[in-house]
Amino acid sequence: MVADSPGRLLENNFLILNLNDPCAIADADAAQHLRVGAELDIVTHHRHIVILMAIAQRDALAQCAAGADLHIAMDEDAAEVPDADAGADLRFGASVPDWPAFPDSAAALAYLKQHYKLVILSNVDRVSFAGSNRRLGVEFDAIYTAQDIGSYKPDPRNFAYMLDRLQERGIGPAQILHTAQSLFHDHAPAKRAGLASCWIDRRHAAVGWGATPPPPAGAGYDFRFTSMAAMADAHRAAIGH
Predict the structure, then answer these.
(1) Which of these three, 75, 96, 117, is where a domain ends?
(2) Which residue range(s) make up the domain with 119?
(3) Whole-angstrom Cα distance, residue 209 to residue 165?
(4) CA–CA separation, 187 vs 190, rounded Å?
(5) For 160-217, how does the pLDDT look when each residue is reduced to its tens digit (9 = 90+)?
(6) What is the rounded distance in angstroms from the CA atom of residue 124 to the CA atom of residue 158?
(7) Dihedrals φ, ψ of 136, to 5°?
(8) Is residue 1 a part of any domain in this protein?
(9) pLDDT digits over 7-28, tens only?
(10) Are 220 and 191 in contact (CB under 8 A)?
């Protein structure tokens, strides 16, 4: 529903922005003013799709569960489904820190850390990313989450927030390589922000764009690898190791 696996969701660093037909949201950007800062979950409830949005604080999940922010009526011909477990959204949100990363990510990041500063620009909240960070086992030089920023990628505010804070550390745009999976959520806005980018194309053997919308016209990247391990291997080869 979100990605092929929990690990893919974490590395993609995106949340659901849209649904498939016949329940598609015509304008997914309209949801951004809600300041989504944590999880986005989909549950079924009386022939409706309910999108529960956590706004900045985890305890807001309870408020979302009591009165969902957004309802999209399903096709009238859709099959009846049983009522959703009232606590499923809370358990789902609380499980994010326990989701595994991709098998190659920790080793690749440990290698790259020897040569570069590593910065996270993530669409999850601080508590959720802390769980992911423990599994990755690397000390990042900076971590900027959607909870910190108050918006989520591909909103340009996320990139502006990161660039402003890295500039305070003496790191300019020309020194940054934005590395991510989603062309829609990461590479398109990174290009608009003037950043070079590296596409980790883990869906290289799959058809379509998975849970993400198709990238906008003009979305591009400077490097492409099918995994973080492949990216690390390319660096080793480039420096003669």
Answers:
(1) 96
(2) 98-238
(3) 31
(4) 5
(5) 999 999 999 999 999 999 999 999 999 999 999 999 999 999 999 888 888 788 899 8
(6) 12
(7) -75, -30
(8) no
(9) 444 444 433 333 444 444 444 4
(10) yes
